[in-house]
User: Fold this.
Amino acid sequence: MSNLPKIAWIGLGIMGSPMSENLVKAGYDVTGFTLEQDKLDRLTAAGGTAAGSIAEAVRDADVIITMVPASPQVEAIAYGPEGILDNARSGALLIDMSSITPQTSVDLAKAAHEKGIRVLDAPVSGGEAGAIEAVLSIMVGGEQADFDEAEPVFEALGKTVVLCGPHGSGQTVKAANQLIVAVNIQACAEAVVFLEKSGVDLKAALDVLGGGLAGSTVLTRKKDNFLQRDFKPGFRIDLHHKDMGIVTDAARNVGAALPVGAVVAQLVASLRAQGDGGLDHSALLRAVERLSGAQV
Assistant:
């Protein structure tokens, strides 16, 4: 019998599926629930167990991990008679790895405390590739003791794991992360269009830029997307649109100006309005091409 905690995993999407599978590989007993049968089949094929409901998944779990798209989905799976809080055992640790508003995380922690359930907000950065390779950056909000208990689980999922402060802090740092990523992708996309219209060898140019001060994880991860115009979603425009709404609202609440971020948020929104919401966020290149007169 394993001495590792039993884990319930709710949400088996682009990120959740490989992350849950990495926990199975690390020796954890993982029971998962999601609405798509094929995702449940994938988990069982990897050695996990499929549950028929949230209640069934969390009932005997020591640690419950959620990875769903946004605040409304977190609230839907957490609250109510079929939700996590009414069915998890007292003393369980709920780790929400979704990207949601900081206030939603704070409210969830308060509601869970009344049920004897501990909570960490632990959103991630690194995209699908980082999830598959278990090299995610994990930014955590909550109590030190709960973080210490969860750290072995986090280490099976990511490479950089940091407790950033009290409940909601992980989500605040994630919002800042998404601001930086969006602005960086936009800058890369503008550079790509500028280079191509100037007749430069784009691959050579991106290689040398990547080796200098202009280099970044974004450029390294997204270079092939730009070169091949491959916008298969690793992180969808729809989700980045949601995240830019989170960071602009949170910044307004604390009185922080985001002049460049606000412009990029509008560019993300316009791309989504043009029907590209299901594409990878590197598809910001398409918006720059349209603005530059290309038919895309």
Remarks:
- The CA atoms of residues 76 and 83 lie 7 Å apart.
- The mean pLDDT is 97.
- The first strand starts at residue 7 and ends at 10.
- The two ends are 56 Å apart (CA to CA).
